[in-house]
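Two records follow; treat each independently.
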Amino acid sequence: MKHDIRRMQVRLHRNGLSQTAHDQGTFELYAGGLIVTGTNGRCVDVTAMVDYGGIPYLGTWNDVACG
């Protein structure tokens, strides 16, 4: 039985900023790359969501990359 990924969303947040970088849409394999600059002395948090076969999966990773 094949399950199609209907939606993917990735958000990046650089500590010290209120804005987030994000990419979202309907994808099968890869949501695309995101670039965060100005990370010297700051950390990046990642939040990702995938809707797989109608079931949403959410993951959050804090301080993934620290410059």
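The next record belongs to a different protein.
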Amino acid sequence: MSTQRHPTTFSELSELPKAAFVRVVLAAGEASARTSEEVLDPKSFGSFADYRAALIQSRQQQTRFIKSIIEEKARALGLNASSARSLNAVTVEGSAGRILKLIRQVHPKSVVLEQGIMSPAQPQTF
């Protein structure tokens, strides 16, 4: 992972104690339009609308697959992960050190530090 892609968030996470509890939102890499177009032949559809609908469905499947990989790798690192159903994003909670490892493994499109330092045992006040 290049720190140039997410310099502020990466720097912020790197400066935190490795055990600091944080929440980040990772935007999954986008499904490749080129891949979908190569697999689907427009000539095999009755109309442009049918072809377009198939392209959209193919990209949605690819996006779900990418998000599932992020979730799987996060859980393998002992992190809590959940994906947004209608967004191309995965929320991950856990130690800053493990989240940095995850970012290096999955190369997200973007990373947002949603929540700063907080002890898991510390109650939240609203």
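Discussion point: The beta strands are 21-27, 80-83, 89-95, 110-118. How would you locate this feature using only the token line?
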